[in-house]
Amino acid sequence: MRIIIDSDIPHIKGILEPYAEVEYMKGAEINAQSVRECDALIVRTRTKCNEALLRGSSVKIIATATIGTDHIDLDYCQRSGIEVRNAKGCNARGVLQWVAAALRHITTTDNKHPNEYTLGIIGVGSVGSLVTKYARHWGFKIMECDPPRYEREGGEFYPIERLAEECDILSFHTPLDPTTHHLLNKSLLERLRPDAVILNASRGGVVDNIAVANSSHRYYFDVWENEPNIDPIVLEKSAIATPHVAGYSAQGKANATAMVINQIAEYFNLPLTTWYPEDAPRSCAQLISWEEMCRTIDKYYPISEESNRLKRHPEHFEAMRNNYLYREEYF
Question: Distance (Å, rounded) from C-alpha 317 to C-alpha 164?
């Protein structure tokens, strides 16, 4: 059995070697020739798993150490009998930390309190539901939009147009697919309040980056269209810009690696279905107060410093991701 693994996935080296021939490669360098005799791929977003990569290969399963799967052609994999697994929810608390840092930056800039804002959350899955829980606890008024959940469950979900018209802040937490591409576009932007703020820590294509940059709205982006080649005007006009690292917590990365190892082990019947990195910390989930979060967030995540680094050196986008000092989740 042969497995190719993205070399930038942490904690993973040496784990599968007793059971398979393992090769580590940079994600963007994994190509059709290298995967031809491969049984499994363990990847991140930089490996485009499509027909061009997979046709004629012996790949049976792809496990991605990410929540999103927009880098994988799911239709082609289904037609070809290739199983796809992801690490759903692995870094939800890391993204929550990014949102918290952004919210603190917004309220400090505006000199307002949370109870003066209505926060609209678009996509109420693993991440969005955590943001709702904490933001509500901190005093924000909450409106949620999640059409798939509304169809399944009913309940108090609102159309995105209503969130655009009534919310002071919009925070996007949806996957990227044909129904969510440019979910925030020029037409929807025109419905926003003039001083509305946009947060995107989902996927770059969920938001029309150029349309937002050409609007009057402040925006906080962790994800970008065409990354790592960010449009310089979009970057320059952003209030906060980070290099697709919202979920880059130590616990989130450990969770993601554990999940892909567990999935590969389950598929090939290996004794690693409950494996977790021995040297990795576990999450310390606690519902802290707004005041405590504001006092402590810079120690764990100085988001303004990170934004300044990216704005000074956008050409280092990939290096910043690959050499990131993973943050500690403390709430």
Answer: 31
Examine residue 297 and state whether it is found in any structural domain, yes or no. Answer: yes
| pLDDT tens string 28-54 | 999 999 999 999 999 999 999 999 999
Partners of 85 in the β-ladder: 63
Instruction: Provide the 10 A C-beta neighbour count for residue 107.
Output: 20
The set of catalytic residues is: 203, 227, 244
> Mean per-residue pLDDT for 287-315?
98
- pLDDT (tens digit per residue) in 263-286: 999 999 999 999 999 988 787 899
Q: Which of 86, 115, 145 is the last residue of a domain?
A: 86
Give the tokens for residue 24: 């580590």
Position 241 in a domain: yes
Structure letter (DSSP) for residue 281: P
pTM of the model: 0.86
Question: Which distant-in-sequence residues (6+ apart) come within 8 Å of 320 by Cβ?
Answer: 243, 245, 309, 310
Start-to-end C-alpha separation, the chain: 40
Domain shared by 60 and 110, yes or no: no
SS3 per-residue string spanning 210-259? HHHHCCCCEEEECCCCCCCCCCHHHHHHCCEECCCCCCCEHHHHHHHHHH
How large is the average pLDDT for residues 62-71?
94
Strand partners, 172: 122, 200
